[in-house]
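Reading a protein record of the kind used here takes little practice once its layout is understood. The fold follows as a row of integers, each naming the local backbone shape at the matching residue. With these conventions in mind, the following record can be read line by line:

_____
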Amino acid sequence: MTSRRAAGAAALRETVTETITRAALDELAEIGYARMSMEAVTRRAGVGKAALYRRWPSKDAMLIDLISTAVRAHSPADIDTGSLRGDVEAFIRDVVGALTHQLVSRIVPDLFAEAARNRDLADALRAAVAAPRRAAAAQLLQRGIDRGELPTQLDFELGMDLLGAPLFFRLLISRGPVDDGYIARLTNATLAALAAAA
């Protein structure tokens, strides 16, 4: 069964939504969450206020929806290389790819800083960004246990932290470089830490 392309008014609405989405994310990356306004997005997108308010009642609602949609489009890969070492390295490379995306690297630190003051945004980021990554990490860890490569009494919360937190800090906080050598060293360190995380 082939999918039908939107036509007429539906296609126009889709195009307007895409234009607004680009404008909102560019505005967020350029000036940050606190200074961003619906009015600034309408100016950047070249649309009237009604076009935004028909879709979202507020800035928070708009950003939560757009970020959730963007993250779903770049959900973590289902990784199963057949070995824990291969899985950990592939997971690390997947996270690096997500966090080094030009727009993501500019907006995520600002959003997480704002989330400390905005519970709705914090909940949305947890659901859209953190939860899928942690679920993928948990699946990787369970496969490692099932293959006998990790202890059965593994601390899953700590294990999930070990798979993501170092890269988040490296790429979004300290802004350090991540090359193949760094990925190899981080893979070795993560494997050693996971073996001890029981």
